[in-house]
Amino acid sequence: MGEAALAALISLADPSLLVMLLAGVLAGLLMGLIPGLGGTGAVAVLLPVTFGMEAPQALALLIGALAVVHTSDTVAAVLLGAPGSASASVTMLDGYAMARRGQAARALSLAFLSSMAGGILGAVGLTIAIPLARPLVLSFGSPELFMLTVLGVALAAVLSRGNVAKGLVAGLLGLLLGMVGTSPTTAEYRFTFGSLFLGDGLSLVAVALGVFGLAEIASRVGQRGTGPERTVRLGGGWLAGVREWLRYWSHVLRGSLIGIWAGVLPGIGATAGTWLAYGQAVATAKDRRKFGKGDPRGIVGPESANNSVEAGDLIPTLLFGIPGGVPAAMLLGMLLTYGVQPGPAIVTDHLDLMYLIVWSFAIASVLGALLCFLGTRWLARITEVPFAVLGPGLVVVMLLGAFQESGQLGDLWVMLALGVLGWLLKGTGFPRAPFLIGFVLAIPLERYYFLTDQVYDGLDWVGRPWVLVFLAVLALPGVTAAARAVRARRSGAGDAASGAAALQEEAPLADSPWSLLTGVGALAVFGAAFAAAGSYSADAQLVPRLVCAAGALAAAWLVFQELARFRRRRRDGAGSPPPPLVSPPAADAAAEEVPAEDAPTPAGEPEPEREMVPVGAGASAGVAVAGRTFAWIAAFLVLVALGGYVAALLLFVPAFLLYVARVRTRTVVLYTLTAAVVVGGLPSLLPVHLPVGLLPG
């Protein structure tokens, strides 16, 4: 193993690998500044660029981005009080309070160093996991690998924040979508409806960018600027932050370990990992009154956790083939396209690639922190751009990326349709991570099942020791969730109301008829797919029908819950108090950890007024904005089909900026020309192909 690790380090001396690693770091830093994209957006946008590359170069590019995306998302959280990602909202509590006292540089120094340390310690954790888990991985056969795929989807669904039924429905929908195309056992076409385009299945890039990228744009494009009154100056204190960071080294270590643990568990992710780190910092502090007012411990712990989460996520992804989160799921898909099978095969045949990932993660963490120290003044300017202005450029990049895998315009329409689905899932409170994890694991799950069925008679394989362990692990979250539901029912509706309020900003349609309609729609999809699968051979229909049956049960359970909630609202509507007021989720979450008298208000400054809105207010406006956004994207695709990509860009971008973002004409002209030059010049710099229209050029 030592030889493989040394060989991987020496390979990084290759200029092509270093260039790809640096390019990934730069892309990750920029993506981290854009709200809602984070590691998912960074990997999804860069994944098409890797087509045609060798596996080491592709891994260096993607790992470079993944390692630093949580380093730069702190900039907006500290300087604007508007976090670049959900996980950065934890840092905002103390970081923004510190910045308002003129200590933004000190807060950013603490954050950058903690992110770097978290990345390095996460890489160390991944290194230690390789020799420890190798004997275990090599002892696994097809029954254990099948159970691991089931476990990956189930845990991602059950452990995701929110309703367990919604998590299960999302995960099973992803599994069903992943079975579109050719059956891995009988080579039959399934759910293609006679379309040759669907015969090869759906593109991972199109699915990921649709469900997460376009959905995020539709959700946020109505947001305007944060307002000049919220911005703060950097000031001094860089060295003071370095000294303070050294003082709190124990919080760095604890936060990193919590992050690694959160990454190993499917569905937990960086957001939950950072809140866990913040919670332990508060719980172990002797003086808790400073938290939320600019306490450095409230920055060090969470920032150490959010980078180590991504490294921890790679442990189950590489060693067992079970992605813990969305970026890891896409990375797993990329490895499979290169013929690299995670699990026993990667440990025996591609150990050099594993250590290349470890070294790349550690080096990228250092580079990311260094570049953030050097470029914060320039990075901060990007955070002040309204999302409506960023929207058209992001749409152009994402659609172009989805086109690269197959070179078919059909992928772009699939991406648009899944964008609508992703927006609906997000708005109604369905977790999207189980959906993508299920999509990626659909074919491995089916393949491992039939391998097991061929080797063993009946259910003899269920008695294998590790299979029994995995079954117990699979049952544990269900028992825990049931116990939590019983406790919540006994504690009364107050806790439920506060939980609904905390999620209202993130899922504004969760407590509306839209949620019920989504559940009914999912039930109809599972029922129709179950019926359609009846025309396939016995082997080709077995797993899809099992998935549909489980999905129908979960969807029926969800519909029952929604109907009961709807009847309860109607019954209590006449005498109920006004709907609760909701503030941004970060503020609500902070209230759980910090007493009310310790609100993050610097001494001598008045408490800033938060915009409070009734639950459900603005939901209809959000639906209208999302509908118009998807209509704009559909019009862009029609223009692409007619006149080609650059010509469509020259019409779509200025129209969107003028009528949606309401940008000045001069800015529109510069923005459009820059986008056209960059996109038009890409084919001469990278292996990128532009869609060609039907009309003669």
Output the keywords.
two-stranded antiparallel sheet, 697 residues, 27 helices, two-stranded antiparallel ribbon, 4 strands, mainly alpha
Give a description of the structure:
By secondary structure, this protein is mainly alpha-helical. Helices cover 73% and strands 1% of the residues. It is built from 27 helices and four strands. The protein has helices at 2-11, 15-33, 38-46, 55-80, 88-100, 104-138, 142-159, 164-178, 204-220, 238-247, 249-264, 269-284, 297-320, 326-337, 344-349, 351-383, 387-406, 409-427, 433-455, 465-491, 493-504, 513-532, 538-572, 585-593, 619-643, 645-661, 665-685; strands at 181-182, 189-190, 581-582, 613-614. The strands form two sheets. A two-stranded antiparallel sheet has the order 1-2. The chain has a two-stranded antiparallel sheet with strand order 3-4. α11 runs antiparallel to α12 (269-284). The protein is globular and about 70 Å long. Mean pLDDT is 78; it is low at 225-229, 492-503 and 574-617. Keywords: Membrane, Transmembrane, Transmembrane helix. Residues 571-612 are annotated as: Disordered. Residues 18-436 form the DUF112 domain.
Secondary structure: number of strands: 4
Q: Regions with pLDDT < 50 over 5+ consecutive residues?
A: 225-229, 492-503, 574-617
Please report the distance between the alpha carbons of the first and last residues: 57 Å
Which oligomeric form is depicted?
single chain
Number of helices: 27
Pfam families: TctA (PF01970)
InterPro entries: DUF112_TM
Protein name: Tripartite tricarboxylate transporter permease
Region (Disordered): 571-612
